[in-house]
Every structure is written in structure tokens, then in C-alpha cells.
Amino acid sequence: MTPKKIRNPFRPGRGATPPYLAGRENEQGRIREILADMADGDSPAADIVMYGPRGMGKTVLLNWVGGEVEKTSKHNLPLRAIQTTPTIFPSLELLWNKLISDDWKKKIWPEQIELGALGNKIVWNSKAHNEDDLVSVLIEECKERPLVLLMDEAHTMDSRFCQDLLNISQQVNQNAPFLLVLAGTPGLSHLLTTVGASFVERSEKMGIARLDAQATADAIVKPLDADGVTVDTDALEHVVEDSQHYPYFIQLWGAALWDLAKEKELQKLTAQETAEVETKVESRRLNFYEQRRATLDELELLPAAVAIAALFQDTETTTRDYLKEIIADNLPADSLATQSVNEHLQTFIRHEFIWNPPDSILFEAGIPSLMRYVLDKQREHVQERSSKPNQEIPAKNGNSDLDLGP
Ligand SMILES: Nc1ncnc2c1ncn2[C@@H]1O[C@H](COP(=O)(O)OP(=O)(O)OP(=O)(O)O)[C@@H](O)[C@H]1O
Ligand SMILES: [Mg+2]
What we know:
Low-confidence stretches: 394-406
Largest sheet: 5 strands, parallel
Mean pLDDT: 89
Shape: globular
Radius of gyration: 25 Å
Number of domains: 3
CATH topology of the largest domain: Rossmann fold
Number of strands: 12
CATH architecture of the largest domain: 3-Layer(aba) Sandwich
Strand order of the largest sheet: 2-5-6-1-7
Order of helices and strands: HEHEHHEEHEHEHHEHEHHEHHEHHHEEH
Distance between the termini: 44 Å
Oligomer: single chain
Bound molecules: adenosine-5'-triphosphate, magnesium ion
């Protein structure tokens, strides 16, 4: 049987909700509990910080929370959600406009309502109000209609905006059901520590990491199954392993397999089919890696990246101090004059080359097999150079001595 649907259900892409949201049961369970408490009028004990490298599924999870808020509105207190990013509301003034709903603006400041041609037009500028008043109004509104503020890409907040947002959250949350959920790359953790150390301590952290093998298999099999296509054990094992349990790669694989099943009108996929689509998956993956490698190159951090990648060939985790040593040994000569080793370490974290999950002090590789890619590219580069000895370029800080592995 051919897949019944015309449109491929898999969604390889940023923020695209997958056909089956796999492996987030713990986070979903916890969030459902908090939302149910809020609908009963209770304030959540802490804000939530979700962080993880790119492509792990933070936006998808935030979208899911938004959807859950809609569902809970049928019970007790009706909840509302605002999902946004710092680019949409780069200043608190703009955000305030959204935090207090139009209904409440009409109720509290009726004199500021103007009737426009198309109905009520709200003439309201948060700048005209002092912040304590705004907080009080928001508290009153949240008592009747609890608010969940979902801030995606939170690592891009400027530190002033971040600090103000954390303050508002704290003040409102102490008096009414209000939940702030921040989602961002591992760089978010650093931003929060610099602007609100106490906030970080009391927030509930959720590391959005790779899925386990079972969840990876479910993410592939369930949507295919819904369209009448099965995957045999060998083929599935290969796909699960090759995807490295990384949500974005899982969707790449799913999409490629679905297209093939549709094109060839297959009901069952075997190792033959996985082999057939592997090149397609691989080429999109290489493109993804190359963009990240190019960024590190532009930042002149490629030699240090190669050294870190070489280290991670022998170990899954390492310490912060050891990483700093490696980075310091592999920076261009003058770069420590402008930035400290710590700042360079943060750059690696911001670009998801390495990260430390919330419940660990040890660092691990950010995006799977990007390290392998960086090493392979370096090896190719070294080989190319040795095949053209006359054009040899001097090595930076002795990186040519690095053991690049097999
Ligand atoms: N739990 C999941 N199960 C299956 N696929 C998932 C899951 N979560 C995310 N995906 C898929 O992974 C990809 C990346 O998801 P998403 O954009 O939410 O990641 P992100 O962490 O927000 O990335 P970024 O930091 O780039 O914004 C999408 O293609 C999405 O469909
Ligand atoms: Mg995202």
C-alpha cells in the first residue's frame, strides 16, 4: 500500500512540529501538573528554563505547551499563553502591551479606549504607566486568568531585558499564577547566571537533549505506520543508529523514507530502501555540519575545535578546566589579548559545539558527530597540504601535531 497522505508528515526544519513528539514524556508530565495547579489558582513554585543545543526540539516543546494551555482553559481558571521571542518584543515596553490583555486594558483604563472604524482601537502605551502599577494590574489579571509566557530563543535576550523580565516574573509569580518558560541554546545558562544567579538557582531546569533509542524508533515508526508502511528490524536499527537519536536527523530520515515509500508504492521498508535514501540524508546532514564548521572558522576557533574534537574521540565527557586548557593552547597568538579563555569557552557553548546538560558539571559534545566531521575535514586538509608541499602554509600553534585518530 502506498502512503495514504499526499503530504509528507515528517518535518525536518526549525520549530516544525513532528508527526509524533517522541521521548519528552517526563517534561510533558511535569508541565501538565504545573498547568493543572495554575488552573486551580496556585502559583508555580519556579519558572522553567529549557535549554539544549540547536535542533533538539525546544521550540517544538514550547509549541506543545502553548497547545496544552488551550486545552486546560476548559477547566477552573482559563489559562492564556503568550509565545514569543526577543526579536518580536525587543523591549519591555512592547512586551507589556501584550502581557496585559486588551480586555483588561479596557477594564482598567477605559479612558484610553478609542473607537476606530473597524471597532475598538486600543490607544495604550505602557510607557505612560509606572512599572509597579503594571505589575499590580498583571497580578490581578493572572488571578482571574493565569498567564504562561513562553520565551523562545531566550539566549538572544540582552542582559538588561533579561533582568527586567526575571524581576517581573518573580513579582507576579509570588502573588498570582504566572509561569515564565525560557527556552534557548546552552548559552542561555550563561546569560542567566550573569544576570540573575538567584533566578537560576530556583528555576526548574529541563535539559532538552537527544532522545533514547526507543523514542527515536517510535518517532520514525509511528508516523510511517499510520500511513500503512512498516520498517523491518534491521532497517530500523540502522536508521536509529545513524540518526544518532538527534531529533532533526530523525526527521530527515523519516522524510526521506516516506518519500521513497510513496514513490515506489511500498508497504514495507527494508535495508535496501534505507541504503537507497542514505545519500540524500547524508548530503543534508553534511550541509548542516559545514555551516557550523564555517562559523567556527570565521571566529578563528577552528584549531581549538579540532583539538576539542580529537579529545572527544576518546571520551564522552570532560571537565571545564580541561576544555579551557585545550582552548588556550590552540588559539591564534593574539586572541587572548581581546578575549579571555572563558569567553572563548562561552563562544563554543553558544555555537553548541560543547555543552553541559543541566544535571551535570561535565561537558559533552553538542551536536552529534559534528566533531567527527570537523576532524575528517581537518584530515582532508592536512592530506591536501602534504600532497602540495611547495604550497605549505605554516601551522598555527603546532596543530599539525594533533593526533586526528584513525
Ligand atoms: N520529540 C521529538 N520527536 C521527534 N522529532 C522532533 C522532536 N522534537 C523536535 N523534533 C524535530 O527536530 C527538529 C528541530 O526541532 P526544533 O526546531 O524544535 O529544535 P530547537 O531545539 O528549537 O532548535 P533551534 O535551537 O535551532 O531553534 C524539527 O525538525 C522537529 O520536527
Ligand atoms: Mg527553536
